[in-house]
TrEMBL record:
It comes from the Bacteria. It is a single-pass membrane protein. It comes from Sporolactobacillus spathodeae. Keywords: Cell membrane, Membrane, Transmembrane, Transmembrane helix. This is Phage shock protein C. The keyword rRNA-binding does not apply. The chain crosses the membrane at residues 34-59.
Amino acid sequence: MHKRLYRSRSNRVLQGVLGGIGEYFEIDPTLVRLIFIVITLVTALVPCIIGYFLAYLIMPEER
């Protein structure tokens, strides 16, 4: 069976992007969110937010 990356409907805080990434890689979505927050705070804020927004636009929502 072929896995696809979707925005999560069940693990959603904002738009389900990070929840979908966590489900795809079979890791806790909370861990993905924490990693995203750390990366955002350590690096520049704007590129991370733009990346999240682009992922929101590109990733289809889970069926």
